[in-house]
Fold this protein.
Amino acid sequence: MLRKFLLPCLMLGVLSQAIAAPEDEEVEAVDRTPESEIVVGQSVPTSGLNADTGKALALGASLYFGRINARGGINGAVINHKVLDDASDGKRALANTRTLLDKENALLLVNYYGAAAATEVAKSGVLTSNNVALVGVHSGAESLRQSPNPNIFMTRTGYAQELEKTVQLLTGNLGITRVGALVQGDADGEAALASLKAALQKRQITLAIEAPFDAKSGDVTKATGQLAKANPQAVIILASSKPAAEFVKRYKAAGGTSQLYGISLIQFEDVIRYISAKNAHGLGISQVYPYPSNVQVRLIREFQEDAGPVLRSGEFPTYAVLEGYLSARLAVEAIRRAGKNPTRQAIYNAMAGLGRVDLGGFAIDFSNNQRLGSKFVELTMISPTGTLTR
């Protein structure tokens, strides 16, 4: 029992080493056993604007891989989880991918962050030429979904589905017709904006105002002023956690009275940590995974058992930790099905043949050669106490 609860703490320490490592240095998430190991690679931002979410995705994967290693690994081989920092830069994510495949001999890749990274990697052809699977991308961009790369297995639904549900609530239930948007100037922000406009156009509504901001600096000052002046009935926040939190705080201070809603790029725990529950209260967020505190779902009970000490620390956003954890579970299942001495091709074939996998109250479905594994969306709102209402 002691070992079970020490393991997540050890993984947390290992991730801290990864975060502190030099810019391009790979870091191992388990002790090396060179004669019998399976390398799983991951490129996420552990520096820059989206570092907290990137660290959480890596931590979630490490927690599950650590659990498997503590039980003897897979067919006697331990999982060696290598995490590289891409700072949300697509070209750097591609360079990391080449390093993981060519130098580290990774047999599988898990949970990259963002449309920029996934698009750069996909269009390079490096996944198909190496017959390697990438399990999970922290993005809902339609460009990744309308013509999916056969080597990328998506574990979350798209921005189109998220924003359709939000717009339906605003227009159908609340009668709102004047909608504005805060738009992060990167691949994910622009993709989400296109999905928002499509959902509004479906209802013959034109976006009242769109206020962009620079994704690298995260400075929302000008955009906040533009939206506060327009003060539409609702503002949709198409941004990641830090700029979203700063906008919410500044917008309310400027006297903006719009209802505020965001997409799943926003980690509610981070928003609360940045600006307090009092300031975050009332922010609606669409979610693409089950609530990480909903113990009625078996997946969540198992997740909490493995990640308990980390979740209690409050340092990492739990939705993102859950996302990394879930992708690692799928990866392990594929490695197991690939048999002893697995190859990249064998693991890819196993992923392609997974079909519908019930993870315990939450299913991922890759049946019929599809790569879009989930359609789950639910709307949540931050309460005055800092929890989510659903």
Summary: The chain has two domains: 2-156+292-369, 159-287. The longest helix spans residues 51-70.
